Amino acid sequence: MQTIYELLTERADLLENTVVIIDPCLNPDGRDRYANWYNQTRTVPYNTNKISREHSEPWPGGRANHYLFDLNRDWAWITQVESQQRLKEYHKWLPHVHADFHEQGINEPFYFAPAAEPYHEVITKWQRDFQHMLGKNNAKIF
Fold it and tell me: What is the pLDDT of residues 41-97, one digit of tens each?
């Protein structure tokens, strides 16, 4: 929501020629499970110790949906309704840029492009160069 707020209040000029679609919650079941757990275990002030309880989410964690399926792993088969609906919207808009910002755990908090080699044979040099540029600029912000 902060991203939307800042786009509207500080960078509205970008929106004159750009359509921005933000998917704030890919996995509502997991998000609710995680938020409820975190709100019960967090400390005030925030505990930066990586082994504190508030950084060690118990099974099944927030990544799994109601059926305990990890939606981050569903992109290959698209078996879950959440993934099916998300892909339907993606195909409806066919964005020029799709940025997937999500956590990867406490030791590697965010993924930034480019993807690791080897690249698929159909990915062009231009696409690889674009990933490098996009990843470096995203990393600057974080």
Answer: 998 998 888 888 888 889 988 888 999 998 888 888 999 999 999 899 999 999 887
Farthest CA pair distance, the chain: 50
Q: Are 111 and 72 in contact (CB under 8 A)?
A: no
Residue 77 tokens read as: 């088969």
Is pLDDT larger for residue 13 or for residue 100?
Answer: 13
Do residues 80 and 69 lie in contact, with contact meaning Cβ atoms separated by under 8 Å? yes
- Please give the Cα distance from 61 to 68 (Å, whole number): 9
DSSP state of 66: T
CA distance 142 to 103: 12
Task: Match 């290959």 to its residue by tokens.
Answer: 76
| Whether 82 contacts 89, CB under 8 Å | no
Structure tokens at 37: 């757990």
